[in-house]
Amino acid sequence: MNTSVLGSALAVAVLTLTGCSGPIELTTPKSEPNKGETVAPAVPVTAKTAFWEMYKPAYAWAADLWPLTIEAKTVSGIKNEGGKAAMWVAVFGSPRRREYCKFTYSVAARPPDIRKGISADKALPWAGPRPDAWAITTSDWTIDSDEAYKTARATADAWLLKHPGKELTTFSLGAASNFPGPVWVVLWGDKDDGFLTRVSASTGKVLK
Q1: DSSP-derived secondary structure letter, 115
Q2: Domain locations in the chain?
Q3: SS3 content of the chain, % helix, strand, coil (to 5)
Q4: pTM (predicted TM-score)
Q5: Cα–Cα distance between 79 and 59 in angstroms, integer?
Q6: Is 138 helix (H, G, I), strand (E, B) or coil?
Q7: Maximum CA extent, the chain
Q8: Which of 60, 65, 175, 200 lies at a C-alpha separation of 20 to 30 Å from 187?
Q9: CA 46 – CA 127 distance, rounded (Å)
Q10: What is the DSSP annotation of 141-155?
Q11: Helix residue ranges, H only, the chain
Q12: Count of beta carbons in the 10 Å neighbourhood of residue 144
């Protein structure tokens, strides 16, 4: 499998990391259930649901922000399925600050590492977008993660039947200069023994 295509999905890997500044302070209010109130179980959400929650504090950090990537992650005890995930991580860059910052949205807490709601890492120096790690234009992002997953899964069905037990290992949105818009990258297995599909986040079509 041609592993070079992963570069467009994992833009964080090509960002320049040369130090760090202070942590981003968030003022997300804590919501405690009332006594006797039934708390609904946490369920996974689509990328857009999580992204727009993270966009608010990210915009407060840098009004000139550029979305760079968003990637699905897992939370123990909650199953990711159908293109929805219990946790999403988005990376935003600021040309003015010349920094990028990683924001996380999780539907549940798993102390000490995972906090429910939104959290942010320290901002790090950023050299700006590169051809293989471009910024995402949100107006071109019309296909949410659930729809992209459905399309990708249809292309992978035959392979998955021959490779039972292969898990979804990468599900991320990124952009690169050689594509006309943002691209979903969906990978089952790994780079040596896996099945990778790219789905246009603008049209919903599989990219060859």
Answers
A1: -
A2: 3-25+42-207
A3: 25, 30, 45
A4: 0.85
A5: 30
A6: helix
A7: 55
A8: 65
A9: 30
A10: --S-HHHHHHHHHHH
A11: 6-9, 47-61, 145-162
A12: 19
194 vs 16, 61, 174, 184, 187, CA distance in Å?
Answer: 28, 38, 20, 16, 7
Cα distances from 143 to residues 19, 70, 114, 129, 199, in angstroms, run 35, 13, 27, 23, 9
Give the Cα separation of 56 and 29 in Å (integer).
14
- The b/e string for 153-171 (b: 16+ C-beta within 10 A; e otherwise) is beebeeeeeeeeebebebb
For 66-109, the pLDDT digits (tens) are 999 999 999 999 999 999 999 999 999 999 999 999 999 999 99
pLDDT of residue 1: 43
- Residue 149 phi/psi, 5-degree rounding, is -65, -45
Residue 40: CB atoms within 10 A of its CB come to 6
Residue 91 makes CB contacts below 8 A (sequence gap 6+) with 11, 12, 15, 67, 68, 69, 70, 100, 101, 102, 103
Distance between terminal CA atoms of the chain? 13
Q: Measuring CA to CA, how many Å separate 97 from each of 21, 65, 66, 120, 182?
A: 11, 9, 11, 16, 24
Q: Which two tokens stand for residue 186?
A: 């969906």
Two tokens, residue 112: 């000490």
Amino acid (1-letter code) at residue 142: T
Q: What is the mean pLDDT of residues 131-142?
A: 95
